[in-house]
Amino acid sequence: MRNIILFIVVVFCAYMGYDKFGRRSVFPKVVAECMVQQKSFVEGKDSMFAVVAGKEHFFTHVLNKSGMWVYPQKDSLVTAFTTAQNSNLQFAAGKATAEDIDKSFQGQIPRIILLFAFVGLVILIQHYQSEEDIVMPPDEQK
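Below the sequence we write its predicted structure tokens.
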């Protein structure tokens, strides 16, 4: 039980430490705001795209405000952007500023830390439960 509490404290410290000191800006640059359109290439297969600077850019996911990559909705507004690390065009849901996009990216890493922490906690709990379930035979209990 002491190890589980220690594990929770370590994960909490890692989460708070990253939140305070580890975040780095991705320096997003907003390129344009555009509407999501739909095009069918193959029967039953629709592709989403947006026209930016006269070119069609196809995409499968957009970044929402909470930092999750979600499927785009037809005829919805998206914001096209690039980052310092990735010059490819990416899309954020709705009308977003560079600060909004940066906050969305920064919100992804703490979720990943918490996900791994949850998995580790479940493994620890299962380990301790399996040790408690082991029963010694009556002749070995002396």
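The chain has a mean pLDDT of 81.
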